[in-house]
UniProtKB/TrEMBL annotation:
One of its GO terms (cellular component) is plasma membrane. This is Uncharacterized protein. The keyword Oxidoreductase does not apply. The keyword Cell membrane applies. It is found in: Cell membrane; Endomembrane system. It comes from the Eukaryota. Keywords: Cell membrane, Glycoprotein, Membrane, Receptor, Signal, Transmembrane, Transmembrane helix. It comes from Octactis speculum. SUPFAM superfamilies: L domain-like. InterPro entries: LRR_dom_sf (IPR032675). It is a single-pass membrane protein.
Length: 202
């Protein structure tokens, strides 16, 4: 049980990825303020409110993909040093505008969560390399706003409510993979090659 970590106040890294027997509530990590890297990916018995990390101001990586973590992502709005966040297939919710001040973000996975909001939030995220919003049906906005995230390499928008002109991504020259199935954009695939010839549209 991860409760055993409660008193490890000086620990900087926790990694239990794909450990099916690890269980417990992440609230026990609330006072581990020196955490830099947290990985419980695939630990289905790990649960609790993501607000447990709201005061871990030096944290850079949080990977809770596939856990039973819940709560609002608004609790993460002050994590200015975070570079990598994986919350896919969790129970989290909230508005993606919570990431407006997380200017160091490079990799974000929110696939199949109840996160909502407008992609305008990411319009100035010029360090962002991966943004996965797959299956987030309440994510809206015009794809043109993502043209400002010019370092994007993978962009997954399948199943979202995003609209606009796909060629507006012309400045995202590093983009290698774009997922737009199940969106209003999927009938524009043929036009992408004109502005981003090296990008695969899936």
């Amino acid at each position: 049980n991860i409760a055993a970590l409660k008193s490890a106040t000086s620990v900087k890294k926790i990694s239990f990825a794909d450990c099916p027997n690890i269980e417990g509530d992440i609230s026990c990590l609330r006072n581990l303020l020196q955490l830099v890297d947290v990985n419980f990916n695939g630990c289905r018995k790990v649960q609790g409110d993501i607000a447990a990390f709201e005061n871990t101001r030096v944290v850079q990586k949080i990977d809770l993909g596939g856990t039973h973590i819940s709560g609002s992502i608004e609790a993460l709005c002050a994590l200015e040093h975070i570079t990598e966040l994986n919350l896919k297939h969790t129970l989290v919710e909230g508005n993606c505008r919570s990431f407006k001040n997380c200017s160091e973000l490079k990799r974000v996975w929110l696939a199949h969560t109840a996160v909502q909001g407008n992609v305008l939030t990411f319009s100035e995220a010029n360090k962002l390399e991966i943004l996965s919003l797959y299956g987030c049906k309440d994510i809206t906005g015009d794809i043109k706003y993502l043209n400002g995230a010019s370092n994007l390499q993978l962009l997954s928008l399948s199943g979202t409510a995003i609209t606009g002109d796909i060629t507006s991504l012309r400045d995202c020259t590093k983009l290698k993979s774009l997922y737009i199935r199940g969106t209003a954009l999927e009938n524009q695939v043929a036009y992408l090659g004109k502005v981003l010839p090296n990008c695969r549209c899936l």
